[in-house]
Amino acid sequence: MAVTDQILTKTLLKSDILRHLTFTLGKDAPHASVYDWRMALSYAIRDRIMEPWFASTRRTWGEDRKRVYYLSMEFLIGRLLEDATINLGLHEMAETTMAELGQDFREIIGNEPDAALGNGGLGRLAACFMESMATLGCPAYGYGIRYEHGLFRQRFEQGQQVETPEDWLNQRNPWEFDRPEATYTIGFKGEVVTRDGKEIWTPGETVFAMGHDTPVIGWKGRWANTLRLWGAKPTTMFDLDRFNRGDYAAAAEPETLARTLSRVLYPDDTTYQGKELRLKQEFFLTSAALQDILRRFTSSHGDLRKLPAHVAIQMNDTHPAIAGPELIRLLVDEHGLRFEEALEIAQACLGYTNHTLLPEALERWATFTFGNVLPRHMQIVEQIDSWHRRTYPGRPHYVGIVKHHEVRMGELAFIMSHKVNGVSALHSDLVKKNLFPELDKLHPGRIINETNGVTPRRWLKMANRPLSGLITETIGEGWEADLDRLKELEPHVPDQGFLSAFDAAKRQNKVALANWLKADLGVSVSPDALFDVQIKRIHEYKRQLLNILETVARWQAIRANPTANWVPRVKIFGGKSAPGYVVAKEIIHLINDVGATINADPVVGDRLKVVYPANYNVSMAERLVPAADLSEQISTAGKEASGTGNMKFMINGAPTIGTLDGANVEILQEVGRENFFLFGLTAEEVVTRREDPDHAKKAIEASQVLQDVLQNIAEGVFSPTQKDRYHGLVHRVWHHDYFLVASDFDAFLAAQAETDAAYADRNRWLTMAAMNTARSGFFSSDRTIRGYMTDIWSVESALQG
Ligand SMILES: *Cc1c(COP(=O)(O)O)cnc(C)c1O
């Protein structure tokens, strides 16, 4: 930008902020709060998204482009203000303008609540995909639910997780636009009657779904797409009869009933509960999205058989798998197509992304519930199933969509899609071999792989200003949208000047984190220590337990020999447990108990600290990832589908200590064995190891260290007020240990000893760290989205070059 343009742009920005403060917020500058300034800045930035947004929509219509529709029950977005300023190239300008107005930009950014409309990786992936589709000029809509309460807030009381409701919509959301004209009726229950050979469904309950649009702006503002979130509204506001009879509370019942639909996000990560409300939410999202898609299509096209040439619909996990039957229903019941014709159209439009192999995560609805909530869809599901059985006579009798009085959503999604993808090379392989072996044989080539990625704009450019500045200084601009260019850093890695600049950037992030930890938790940590970070949902398969057992072992070793030359270490944990997941909550309690004991031990001092800031979310990840030295990715092999946290750390120059699981396999391949702390059983070894009923006992008896650790915990060393607190937990490790914590313990200990040695050798460590960044280009979600565009969606970018 020319200097005069820049001055002009800045003058305009400042006057727009002040104009919004006055006329939108109704505030006089001397009395404006941080909230007021944040809103004023958000509106001023939002104004600048409108032109690219409208231009993108106009071009998509004008050029009659194929559109992608990404259906997801979760979008874990985080904050939008800073992201928008970064993608519009207005970050520095916004910062200096706010400073001139006497405001602290960081404080304003921090005032925005996280949009936490998701649980973890699956929802965050959807958010990264939206940003990458906008950056790549892929015409797309995201469809989700506008939950009034996103994922609960986590607090610790005496070390235990306490959940409180999250209320991000209590404040005005400056990024969304209500779309009352995009309102659809969604039906549930009721009955189906046959009339003149046609099935007529009369729902027993109805609600409206109304769209709320948030623009999603891509890198450099060259393209913008729409995230359309559905909010539920009652079809009858009010029961007037009851009101007139004086029953005022009951008069409002229809409204209450409808609103529960988009009230709250289910907080279960990788388990499903089979609750009727959840099934209703899934149908609510899916039906609203499909009605919207068909309305948009029919407004400019006549022949619904052409739908697949114009529409690609991606199902993020099985949560929107009702899309198959619902699209058939709309095409047959409302548009008069034949069943098989409708089925083929639906298949050609639909794609299904599988996210997990965990059996407890695979959605299955009792046919009773399914048939009650969606009677017409139950018929269609049976029809699809018998069509598939007829068409593929080789199908084994035990394979099918409806089995043992349950509707299996994985099989439904598979059969109704033209492509099914896993999310890492290993995972896609296991989807073929273990999850859908029979369907894979009947439909060779349908299962493909699209390894996950993360957006480098948020996770490097925005979250890590010191490192992104160094990268631009070293290899010039443009890497943000072409992450493979990071490999141009490699020739600089042997250069001492570069390495110390890399070191300085990391240190700056570590100092900032240390200051925040002091303020948030009152714990002092030294920025010279190795920051060892495990942040993710708390789950047995992710093995936070393995990490805390190793922490106890380290503590015992330090106490036994305090004068040895210890590499100081800070163990950082973050993550929430599903509210009903008792074992995960016990692990949280143990981490906090161990932390309290270790942090108060004068013998240990700075050699070891344990910190666990509460309420891990996207904004906390943005703080922790850039400051991490070591990335903990230690799941039981075969259980983590991909992981995306692992990629964020790699990009930000933190080597991984990890198992051969999910995308760790590809991280290892990209970064090289010498830059990765590999340990543990492989997915195949895990299966064989489990066949020995005494696997845990044998592993523990072979490890004196593990015996001592378990004994300390069992004796109540970390729970002096309740010595038997962890008896159950220790007993499970000895006698059950499904996730093989004991079997991998010694190998983990040895790998951690390697990290100490590597960290003590400054040059070696910095080289490893820098190599991780330099070789992380593959893990941009731009690469992932390009894969989906060619392999699944057959859609082209609207931006040339
Ligand atoms: C990236 C991210 C995740 C996923 O982390 P994994 O380590 O891949 O499980 C979960 N939650 C938040 C807030 C994230 O940013």
TrEMBL record:
Catalytic activity: [(1->4)-alpha-D-glucosyl](n) + phosphate = [(1->4)-alpha-D-glucosyl](n-1) + alpha-D-glucose 1-phosphate
Modified residues (N6-(pyridoxal phosphate)lysine): K648
One Pfam short name: Phosphorylase
Lineage, uppermost ranks: Bacteria, Pseudomonadati, Pseudomonadota, Alphaproteobacteria, Rhodobacterales
GO molecular function list: glycogen phosphorylase activity; pyridoxal phosphate binding
InterPro entries for the chain: Glycg_phsphrylas, Glyco_trans_35
Its job: Allosteric enzyme that catalyzes the rate-limiting step in glycogen catabolism, the phosphorolytic cleavage of glycogen to produce glucose-1-phosphate, and plays a central role in maintaining cellular and organismal glucose homeostasis.
Entry keyword set: Allosteric enzyme, Carbohydrate metabolism, Glycosyltransferase, Pyridoxal phosphate, Transferase
Cofactor(s) needed: pyridoxal 5'-phosphate
UniProt GO BP: glycogen catabolic process
Cited SUPFAM superfamilies: UDP-Glycosyltransferase/glycogen phosphorylase (SSF53756)
Listed EC numbers: 2.4.1.1
GO cellular component, one term: cytoplasm
Family of the protein in this entry: Belongs to the glycogen phosphorylase family.
Alphabetized Gene3D superfamilies for the sequence: Glycogen Phosphorylase B (3.40.50.2000)
Name used for this protein in its record: Alpha-1,4 glucan phosphorylase
